[in-house]
Design a protein that fits this description.
The protein has 437 residues and is of the alpha+beta class. Helices cover 32% and strands 28% of the residues. The protein contains 14 helices and 23 strands. It is globular. It binds adenosine-5'-triphosphate and magnesium ion. Residues 209, 280, 283 line the site of magnesium ion.
Length: 437
């Protein structure tokens, strides 16, 4: 992509409405723009990140055996009347009336819709187990939307739902999703801690939230200090094996959100207890037959007709973009981890119009393909460097007349800031050759 034609409206000034780094940087880097309180447009740079995050989430869902579908954002109120949640959900639900005076709503979550889908399509236990998920926009009319995409009213969620014949099988699905969440966050370069949690309006009796520790997190969390060094990046998982031991290992140590504190346990932990703030990036629930019984989602089994056992599993995809920035930035801007960076390379032509600079820049631009943002504008070098630091691409490659006279271009790693001088050939081998990355 050429910067001269890219829709990348960066801001030099810090927007006054933004209280936390990620919100500030997403606005300044031209990733999002607010259209109404808690409702955002994703601009091209932001959308590239959102899509990369969503694709990693999808990939890990598939590896864990979940199948993707796509349900609508608008749902009929009837289904929510069947489950009894139409009234319970209260003002957070955006209620809509269509031209025929039918009550509709913008989905805040999808337990009812998927239970109805399942009920109308599956009749026998032989079709079980099933885990279905989608990545879809949700609307919740939050009292206090804030912190940009972290607490929006409209936000993108991955929500998945499991269907099993009995509690034991449902527990296996829960464990699969539990482990897939550990892998997903770790692949995104984030350290997520699973915490015992309340089930809230979803209901049920087994539930874990996954939190990223960050000073700007909205939740108070209390965790055993061993979680601070937890590293899942090299863990291999066999989804066909019994995952209970692995889940027990992860849940054996104390880690809770504020509502679930146990003072007696905390007193025993002494200085092994860490109190911190967390960003909730995922939440999983096992709620058994809560919806299937209310909505008559039953399957035939050797023991007669039984309501199907269910769980639901959410990841805040758009919130994750904010959480990633909270975890990866400095005074100059964002520092994207490679797996989610909007582009891997920022190519800077320091003297547009200089034939040698233009020529080498064009060669690099062609070789680096779809993962390069080429700053080909007629701007001062300082402006270009500052903007590259702000948008935070992992690698900056600067092409200037002085360097070229000595046969080199300058390569900077955004994380850490190390610079090295490399020949054009070395850059091409390193980043565009057959062994690149
Ligand atoms: P919170 O406690 O932060 O309000 P929640 O418990 O109501 O979230 P869930 O129903 O568990 O949310 O939704 C699953 C995931 O969706 C959450 O773990 C979070 O990552 C994300 N999410 C929930 N509400 C929002 C929001 N208003 N804006 C962005 N992401 C959200
Ligand atoms: Mg939650």
């Amino acid at each position: 992509m050429r910067n001269s034609t890219y829709f990348l409206p960066t801001l030099k000034e810090t927007p006054s409405e933004a209280q936390i780094a990620s919100h500030r940087l997403m606005l300044r880097a031209g990733m999002v723009r607010q259209s109404a309180a808690g409702i955002y447009s994703w601009l091209p740079l932001g959308l590239r990140v959102l899509n990369k995050v969503a694709d990693i989430v999808r990939d890990e869902q598939r590896l864990a055996g979940a199948q993707e579908l796509l349900m609508p954002t608008i749902q009929p109120a009837e289904l929510w009347k069947e489950s009894g949640r139409y009234d319970d959900y209260g003002k957070e639900m955006l209620r809509i009336t269509d031209r025929h005076a039918r009550e509709m709503l913008y989905g805040p979550t999808n337990e009812e819709l998927i239970t109805a889908l399942f009920r109308d399509s599956v009749k026998s236990f032989k079709a079980l187990p099933k885990i279905l998920f989608h990545v879809q926009w949700k609307f919740r009319d939050e009292v206090r939307p804030r912190f940009g995409v972290m607490r929006g009213r409209e936000f993108l969620m991955k929500d998945g739902y499991s269907f099993d014949i009995d509690a034991e099988a449902a527990r296996r699905s829960y464990n699969r999703m539990f482990i897939s969440y550990m892998r997903t966050f770790s692949r995104l370069g984030l350290k997520a801690i699973p915490m015992r949690a309340d089930t809230g309006p979803i209901g049920g009796d087994l539930s874990h939230e996954f939190h990223i520790l960050a000073e700007t997190g909205e939740s108070e969390v209390f965790v055993h200090k061993d979680f601070i060094d937890l590293d899942w990046s090299r863990r291999q998982v066999d989804y066909d094996a019994d995952l209970q031991e692995l889940v027990d290992e992860l849940t054996g140590k104390y880690a809770v959100t504020g509502e679930k504190r146990d003072r007696a346990v905390e007193a025993r932990l002494g200085d092994q207890l860490v109190s911190a703030r967390g960003i909730e990036v995922g939440h999983i629930f096992y709620f058994g037959a809560k919806y299937s019984r209310a909505m008559n989602a039953v399957v035939s089994s050797p023991n007669g007709e039984v309501p199907v056992e269910m769980g639901s599993y959410g990841i805040g995809v758009s919130r994750l973009v904010g959480a990633l920035i909270e975890a990866n930035h400095d005074a100059a801007g964002i520092i994207w981890p490679e797996p989610v960076a909007p582009f891997q390379f920022g190519l800077i032509n320091l003297k547009k119009g200089d034939p040698a600079c233009d020529d080498v820049s064009e060669q690099l631009y062609a070789a680096l393909g779809s993962e390069v943002l080429y700053d080909d504008r007629d701007e001062r070098a300082g402006v270009k460097f500052a903007e590259m630091d702000l948008i935070g691409l992992p690698w900056q490659i600067a092409v200037g007349p002085k360097g070229l006279a000595a046969g080199i271009v300058e390569v900077k790693r955004r994380a850490g800031g190390q610079r090295s001088e490399m020949t054009l050939e070395a850059v091409l081998n390193r980043f565009a050759g057959p062994q690149a990355r």
